[in-house]
């Protein structure tokens, strides 16, 4: 009984990690979709960013060159995260989903599935050390 409960807990942890990675991937895609709207936030006349009626000013943001540099860095960061991060997060979510389902199958008494779950858990523990 203890073995089944432990493996089921491991399966639930893997499934929650898959859900977290998938949620973060969706958040990156949303940020990429909203990125063109960021350019409309900067008002060069006032020298500040405005969002939803609020105006954000800063010494750097008041400087038009600095604000443009800030927008360029933001655009590059979002593009990089959306291009590579989303693929990595979706792959991570898929791996955790497969092993989460495998762990739940192992909780029902499948010996080969239980061995794979323990091997994967050991591999994750070793990777976390490095």
Describe this protein's structure.
The protein is mainly alpha-helical and 130 residues long. The protein has one domain. Helices cover 80% and strands 7% of the residues. It has helices spanning 2-38, 59-62, 64-107, 111-129, and strands spanning 42-43, 48-51, 54-56. Strands 1-2-3 form a three-stranded antiparallel sheet, with no helix packed on it. Strand 1 (42-43) and strand 2 form a beta hairpin. Helix 1 (2-38) runs antiparallel to helix 3 and helix 3 runs antiparallel to helix 4. The longest helix has 44 residues, at 64-107. It is rod-shaped and about 70 Å long. The mean pLDDT is 71.
- Reading side by side through the largest sheet, how are the strands ordered? 1-2-3
Helix/sheet category:
mainly alpha
Q: What is the total tally of β strands?
A: 3
- Number of structurally distinct domains: 1
Shape: rod-shaped
Oligomer: single chain
Number of helices: 4
The fraction of residues in strands falls at 5-15%
Spatial gap, N to C terminus = 33 Å
Low-confidence stretches: none
Amount of helix = over 70%
**What pattern of helices and strands is seen along the backbone?**
HEEEHHH
Largest sheet: 3 strands, antiparallel
C-alpha-based Rg, rounded: 22 Å
Round the mean pLDDT to the nearest integer and report it.
71
In short:
80% of the residues lie in helices and 7% in strands. The chain is mainly alpha-helical.
Topology:
Elements: H1 2-38, E1 42-43, E2 48-51, E3 54-56, H2 59-62, H3 64-107, H4 111-129
Antiparallel strand pairs: 1-2, 2-3
Helix pairs in contact: 1-3, 3-4
């Amino acid at each position: 009984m203890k073995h089944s409960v432990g493996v089921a807990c491991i399966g639930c942890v893997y499934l929650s990690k898959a859900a977290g990675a998938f949620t973060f991937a969706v958040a990156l895609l949303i940020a990429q979709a909203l990125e063109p709207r960021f350019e409309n936030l900067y008002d060069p006349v006032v020298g500040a960013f405005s969002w939803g009626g609020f105006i954000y000013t800063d010494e750097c943001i008041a400087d038009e060159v600095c604000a443009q540099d800030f927008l360029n860095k933001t655009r590059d960061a979002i593009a990089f995260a959306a291009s590579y991060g989303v693929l990595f997060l979706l792959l991570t979510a898929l791996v955790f989903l497969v092993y989460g389902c495998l762990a739940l199958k192992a909780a029902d008494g499948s010996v080969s599935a239980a061995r794979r779950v323990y091997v994967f858990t050991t591999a994750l523990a070793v990777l976390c050390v490095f």
